[in-house]
Amino acid sequence: MIAANIPMEGLCMRTKIVATIGPASCTQEKLEQLTEAGVSVFRLNFSHGDPNFFRDVISRIREIEKKVGRPLTIMQDLPGPKIRIGILPEGKIALTRGDRLVLGRERKENEELPFIPFDHPGILATLVPGDKLVLADGGLQFQIEERLDRERFLMTALESGSISSRKGLALPGKSIELPAITEEDRKRLALGIDLGIDAVAVSFVQTVDDVISMKALLRAHGKGDIPVVAKLERQNAAIDNLDAIVAEADIIMVARGDLGVECPMQSLPALQKHIIHTCNRAGKPVIVATQMLLSMVNTPVPTRAEVTDVANAVLDGADCVMLSDETAAGSYPVEAVNYMRSITDEAEKYLLATRRLVPPKDENDTSRFLAYTACLLAKATNACAIVAHSVSGGAARMLAECRPSQTVYALTHNSIVEHALNFVWGVQPFFIPTGDSSISHLRRVQNFIATSADFPMGEDVVITAGEYAPGEQTRRTNLVKIYHK
Known about the structure:
By secondary structure, the chain is an alpha/beta fold. Helices cover 36% and strands 22% of the residues. An eight-stranded parallel barrel has the order 1-2-3-12-13-14-15-16, surrounded by seven helices. A six-stranded mixed sheet has the order 6-5-9-8-7-11, covered by helices on one side. Helix 8 crosses helix 10. The longest helix has 22 residues.
């Protein structure tokens, strides 16, 4: 059984771990072990599984959440408009580099060349000679050579390999007029909201309009506060529309699987760094995902390259690192989380030893200057922690931007905010009931420190809080204080 009310200082989770739940990890025992190993966010892939599976898993996670006394966040990942070829009558087609094929909606009688069925007229209308097509998650590439008629194209295989039915198709660098939210996504979102998800990930985001559409849909369900995770899987999103998407989304995911198909493989490391830097600059949490410890699907230890990959994501500024097949279908799900936790812990030591506190570039950004000042005070006084009263989560996120060595305790009376802060580096969220509304934020924070065993007697704690200022109708963070316990 998992230990109840694990002290926050014992877990010391700065870089957050996202674990995908599947057949290898969906039992009560495995979920408890993953929680104890340090998982903060549980990803449910709604491309697979039925309502009963999701209902049972969410119920188990909520039960564990009550036991451990800390929030466990459930992220629903919607499938989005995955583009696939049709059913091959042959089942599989073996190809040699240079082979010619026909791509189209319908096969003509007496067609001599191998035929790939593709029933997407909107995409077919945009194809022109010279376009590159990628199948089988990047394993096979083709080039369009000639338009045979309105909906049929001659193409050439650029590699040897084999094609099977229903494989995903990508068109690197080509903007595709497809909505990120399908009708099936809408149904699955309604199910997820009914089951109590804490965040929703939108697949194949291309423009900021895709994020805006999801937020509108959440508001229509009365759940406008649920954070939206924009998955960057398309080249136009990751490069051309990045700033606008980061500004609108609540969280960004560097989804390296499809992004590595859309972009030249060798450009992916620099692109990942650029996305992380953009998110850090905007104060938005960022998840690095896909194949981080992939070898652990079948082996109990990761490769040296995988260890370096995870560590570099932390050093680059990632808030979260994600496991997919490793925990959903692998033979060593708990071991994968344990390794990921040990790798991130070690990388954080170097990060904290070499970091420099840098003042905000915008001199008029009072809130960020207060967060920066709080981190300076914490460093100068060797404070044991920073505690922020944060109604929306913004104050805690700004503190995390500075990457302080102290844990940031974020107190909020909003359960949605509490669970959303699990995506933020170095933040340990706590739910506190509002109770007496006349009690100031500062007093609530001081009461929390005075009664919590996480803060030893004789230690200093830096506090940030919001107090009403003359003429203001709402509170905002406007106070930094050193509290000696």
